[in-house]
Amino acid sequence: MSQSLLATVTGAFLVWEALLLIPMVPGKLVDTRDFSSLPRWQYNSFNVCLTSLGLASFVVAGFALANQHWAFAAALVLSLGYIAVFAADLGAVFPVVPDPLPVQLLVLEAIALASAGVGAVVAIQGMRL
Which of 8, 10, 37, 73 is packed most tightly, with the most Cβ within 10 A? Predict the structure, then answer.
């Protein structure tokens, strides 16, 4: 695979992950769990982390599409961030709330976790070139 194709695929995966993340914002469309049991600072910090992850994905995707080689390393870091976030939620590590994980959220997170793994592999391949 050429670098430009890998860069395009990397950018696409980052945009895909960010778009998957948007409806999963805690307390909104898909994630209807009640987070009132979490301290406010913890809830706000988690939202800042998710927002930063999504925005950084759009920025790095742009650089990947511009064939910036360093974007592969940044994409790997972001992919690992997505993997950590989704694995922590699916594994009931964080956030832990009394409400069960909604089925729609479970499905979206499983898809996002798998595609983040593929995105990490693509980013590693891009770093090798």
Answer: 10
CA–CA dist 117, 25 (Å, integer)? 21
pLDDT at 78: 98
Within 10 angstroms of residue 25's Cβ, the number of other Cβ atoms is 14
Query: For 16-46, what is each residue's pLDDT tens digit?
Result: 999 999 988 887 788 888 888 889 999 899 8
The continuous run of DSSP H or E covering 97 comes out as: none
Q: Would you state the structure tokens that stand for residue 105, as one six-digit string?
A: 């959220």
Question: What residue type is 74 in one-letter code?
Answer: A
pTM of the model: 0.92
Neighbour-count burial for 26-63, b at 16+ CB within 10 Å, e otherwise: beeebbebebeebeeeebeebeeebeebbebbeebbeb
